[in-house]
Design goal:
By secondary structure, the protein is an alpha/beta fold. The chain contains 18 helices and 15 strands. It is globular. Bound molecules: pyridoxal-5'-phosphate. Pyridoxal-5'-phosphate (PLP) binds next to helix 10.
């Protein structure tokens, strides 16, 4: 299997190359040239298997024999052994036919662990094979940074630099990053905001001269391996609730569209999905796209669900490519126009086609808190604000009560205490056992001025030296 760019110009890559590459050289995102399809029998056979075994079967075709089965099975097993629940992503029943897929039992308590625990191991495997080291740079406003650090802290061949805006991430989120004391992990607090940090990372990818030839790797959701790892839990949850014999539906709290795109891939690979609901906060570009075919930029709003505070959903380009018959030239034109005008529309008939599968809702802070309180009163579950947005959208938008609805629980409520307290259920919050001493742990972090030259000098001085503890 080869991987091709959504803009049709960049060279096709192998799996190994696509794992080591972020954005395609033509500005597009990599997707598989063809998708594997699972027969009904193959899906039915997965029911009752361990999560790691389902993960192995779902991802094996994408790996394309570039890692031998025994090694790949070991990497997958090790990645999911870091989760604190035997089911890795357990299902919890909210009402008669509405289920929560709890994705927050990993090391950093958010769904990004599912992909990043595997991605770190895949990168390390390929780098070791090539006898190379690489540098990871990323900017975070919260969940991605800690999940990337946890995914890479044990990697012999990687040094990771995560930039966060100084004094502008929550204490839990900061400590989850800065209390990792491995020698290959570098936390940089920028005296600026998230956009400043993000711009420095982008500039570093665009011009990598400061690294003197050391490879720079991206771990944001444009990396195909992250999408691939996320396909697994759609299949696992679907077969647990009766697929392929019966259909299932999913509701996904969404921002960059990475998570829900993985669900769409599972559907394309044979999972019978009746409906996907895209749930957003006030940053509602995806909702406006589904409701009114209006994919346009508007000003960022700070909400109680900060991991979904985005202006443009970068992974939407992958769906755009599929909707337009995988026509790279057309996608390149749409994206070029978007760059100039800040807006684009999907072709009418393609949009109508998408609406058959996707629904959407935007939920404001008030609705988020009301849902946290409502669900706590109904069944004693404390939802995090992102998950609450999903539960609200699922309840309002589901088309069929007889089709099981699976809402993705993307984070543990303890990560977002402000929203939970505002909802009046703060007393029910407790740090899970493996993080109970988080507030006593030693922290390590370097504060740097809002200056690209200073950041790049720091990365160049410390990169490619570290040895993990
Ligand atoms: C990243 C994140 C999301 C959004 O996921 P996308 O793949 O960007 O759509 C939702 N909830 C939480 C808790 C997150 O960390």
């Amino acid at each position: 299997m080869r991987y091709i760019s959504t803009r049709g110009q960049a060279p096709a890559l192998s799996f190994e190359e696509v794992v080591l590459t972020g954005m395609a050289s033509d500005g597009g995102l990599y997707v598989p040239e063809t998708l594997p399809e699972f027969s009904k029998e193959e899906l039915a056979d997965m029911a009752g298997l361990s999560y790691a075994e389902i993960a192995f079967r779902v991802m094996k075709p994408f790996v394309n024999g570039e890692i031998d089965d025994e090694t790949f099975r070991r990497l997958v097993t090790e990645a999911y052994a870091t989760f604190n629940h035997d089911a890795v992503v357990p299902l919890k029943q909210l009402d008669a036919s509405h289920f929560l897929l709890e994705q927050f039992h990993g090391p950093t308590l958010a769904f990004k662990d599912v992909a990043l625990q595997l991605l770190g191991r895949l990168l390390d495997h390929f780098l070791k094979k090539r006898g190379e080291r690489a540098v990871i740079m990323g900017a975070t406003s919260g969940d991605t940074g800690s999940a990337a650090i946890e995914g890479c802290r044990h990697c012999d061949n990687l040094d990771i630099f995560i930039l966060h805006p100084h004094n502008r991430v929550s204490e839990v989120q900061r400590r989850q990053m800065t209390s990792v004391l491995a020698n290959n992990v570098f936390n940089i607090a920028i005296e600026g905001n998230f956009d400043d940090a993000q711009a420095m990372v982008k500039a570093s990818f665009a011009n990598q001269g400061f690294l003197n030839g050391t490879r720079l790797v991206a771990v944001n959701s444009i990396n195909w391996a992250r999408i691939m790892a996320q396909i697994v839990y759609y299949v696992a949850a679907g077969v647990a609730l009766g697929a392929p014999q019966r259909e299932v539906s999913f509701c996904v709290p969404s921002a960059n569209f990475g998570n829900v795109f993985a669900g769409y891939m599972a559907y394309k690979m044979g999972l019978p999905v009746k409906q996907f609901i895209i749930a957003t906060n006030a940053n509602d570009i995806l909702h406006r796209t589904l409701a009114a075919n209006d994919f346009s930029k508007k000003e960022l709003a700070a909400t109680l669900a900060p991991s979904m505070d985005i202006v443009v959903s970068s992974n939407f380009e992958r769906l755009l490519f599929d909707l337009h018959g995988r026509n790279g030239a057309l996608v390149a034109k749409l994206m070029d126009d978007f760059k100039v005008s800040g807006k684009l529309s999907v072709e009418d008939d393609r949009w109508t086609e998408a609406r058959k599968l996707f629904d959407s809702l935007a939920v404001d802070d008030e609705g988020t808190c009301a849902t946290i309180a409502e669900v706590f009163a109904q069944c004693g579950e404390v939802l995090d604000p992102h998950t609450a947005i999903g539960v609200r959208a699922a309840r309002e938008c589901r088309r069929s009560l007889s089709t099981p609805m699976i809402t993705l629980g993307t984070a543990h409520p303890v990560k977002f205490p402000d929203a939970v307290r505002q909802a009046g259920v703060g007393e029910a919050l407790h740090l899970p056992a493996h993080l109970s001493d988080l507030f006593e742990r030693e922290e390590r972090c370097t504060v740097l001025p809002n200056s690209l030259a200073d950041v790049q000098a720091f990365v160049a001085a410390h990169g490619n030296r570290g040895k993990p503890l």
